[in-house]
Amino acid sequence: MHISLFLVVICALVESYGELVPVLSAEEEDMRISLAKCISEASDQNFKPFEVITISLAPILNDTSYYQSTALDGLLLPELFDKNKWTLLVKQPSWGRPSMFQSHTYLTFTKSDSYVIQLNDFTKIENQLHYLKRHPSWNPHAKFIIILTSYYENEGHLLEFITRRMWWCDILNGVIILADKNKAANFNIYSWFPFSDGSCGNKFNKLLHIDSCYDGVMTNNTDWFPNKLPPKMNNCTIHVRTLDYPPYIVKPQRVGNTSYYHIRKGLEAQLMNLVASTCNVYMQYEIVKNDSVGDFAWPANQSTGLMGALKRGDADIAVASLSATWQRHLNLDSTSAYFQDSVGFCVPHSDETSQWEKLSGIMDSSIWFGVIITVAVFIVIIKFLSHQKINPEERPIYADGGNVAMKILAISIGNAVNLQPKSNQVRFFLMMWIIFSLQFDTAYQTYLMSALTNLEYSFQIRTVDDILDSDLEVLFRPDDMKYFMGSSTTRQSQEIVARWKVCNDLDECLRRTAYKKDSVIAASRLYIQYAKSSYISKTGLPLLFCIQEQIVSFPVVAYMRHGFPLQHKFDNIISSINSAGYLQRFEQDLFQEKNFTGGFKNTSTEEDFLDVDVKNKLLTFGHIKPIFMMLFGGYVISSFAFLMELFLYKYAHRLKTFFRHKIG
User: How far apart are CA 372 and CA 409, in angstroms?
Assistant: First the structure.
């Protein structure tokens, strides 16, 4: 391929109070040629073909405190171009205008793989890096070559100054090329290993002289960009921001009066802790209150919550069931996906049908209507067949409709009939009624037992349309609203967005949905799956019902501040952990422990939210106690009437006998 390297050249203009020197001395000319050849040779050895190289050139200054600056553009650019590199020259960069990068075309910029930055004043390193950072191709994980073309007496101070500024910009793979003041046209190459000698990136004066170059010839031919991350990271502190968000983060415990927490349980907490033990770092957790994830808003491109902490550099990593968005990828680094989660609706579980409704609805009204018609038909037939003109042998009692009804009722409730019919016709129909009563009674008792023992519920919301048809409020975490805002053209999305309410405390919103039954909550499926088993009534009935329709399915990633030096190391470890099946084991163990120990904190009880009307729906002994009292009262009255009747009968019999003897 003709184009072996894509070269982006960016000339960062530095304020100058003099003019460029048109004529160079022989020594300066040799320095230019030697330096150009050294950079060309270094690019061959350390830069891969087809990589993107950003070159930031500095103009020559006429300053008496330095030797005259050495420019690269006259020799280096032709040297690189002759090797079939693509060259793009930008002399007056206008980076940093927010309007330039507000569209999705921001995603199409290729990140630079390497940087070559020339300095004629080492104090301008911050300006150079500032310009580069504001361009969408900025990549702090790239390889950096910093070139100083002037001589300096205090090289140690210079190297420490540049190294410190590079580390502030999260540059790990960087070398500094410094002109050798003791040997003309010779250049020394220095590199910094931030985690050597047990340090954690805080010893900026510990640079190593790794190589020298003269006229394109390397002294040691060493690798300028080796792996600077040791297997064990000296127990360096990694700042992690997260939310109290089960099952990803479970039971965080505050460390004294500080803002830090110990977190041992949770899918992502266990993942981060396993990463920490693998590479010997210390995860220092902080909890962001009010479930604030935050996101990036244009044109200021600022954020709050977890994302804001990463953007400002207040934290290194953020975890809390975070989904990938293009705004976050533009501003932050991330790991590969290690969980698959989704957002769905959970609604109040429908109430159990009251016992009165169960008793009244044991059989359909049409069945009772059919029974009444059947009774009437049997009464008419038996009365007709018992008429003396038609059947003179039959007892007269069966010719009366009221008596027939009493006999049929007695048979229905299992009582004996004292006067049985004589004719075969009437006996046949009574036998048919006995069979019908036996079957109907069996069916009724079966339905009765089923109604009293099985759970029956009222209407249950099962679809998004059912939610929209109800008068329930729709509660969302602010972070989850983006799934509807992007598709607000649909009728469902428009109606949900119009009705949504901010939920800053998922636990409180979940309790409200479960107990007050006046709202719908949209939340992570894993969160609901972990939490809903704690929302059970005293009778063992569920209080939440999650509908099958999903709002969106998304991969879960961990975000890191842009340029976090350990990003690739952590990403590789997380991928290995995920491939080994540890995350599935974490999930299985966590849910099993939750089921056995009730790990989800639910401080509310059913009585805190249960209405009096709901309590009265339950059929208890108190409801049927008046029936037994009335029955007992009837027994008492009937017993008293029997005793009175017996007493009066005996008293009247004695009076009758007395007067009979007197008269007689």
Answer: 12
